[in-house]
Task: structure prediction
Amino acid sequence: MSFESERATIMGYLSANWSPSDPPINYENKDFTQPETTWLDALLLSLDSKRASLGGPHHLNRFWGELQVTVLVPQNDGTKNSNLLVDKVVALFDNKELTCADGDGIVFQTPKKLTLGLANGRYRIIVRCPFYRDSRT
Result:
């Protein structure tokens, strides 16, 4: 029932299911050297929380969040490669259910694609993967 358990579960799942032959992923607050080629940036956001149960000896708390994975490809590389990577991230998290080591359940909803376009020599697309985590106290 912790944000650290949530982070470890989600980022661990992403890392375990991302092929070493795929572009590297920059995880939050980790040492990372941006390559000249394609890479991804993973960010976990906490959005809201509230009690989701009615009375009883135990309470169910629901925490909403969003995994944002930004795909960054070199300018003038076209959109095919970036869209293929978006599809791969979507396939990993679309309606995926995960269980944290502490027993909390994480349920992902349908991911969304947000195209940001060009900036600083990179074409950028964000994959927004909304989820909620249920925690019993």
The first strand starts at residue 25 and ends at 27. Strands lie at 25-27, 39-51, 60-74, 97-99, 105-108, 112-119, 122-136.
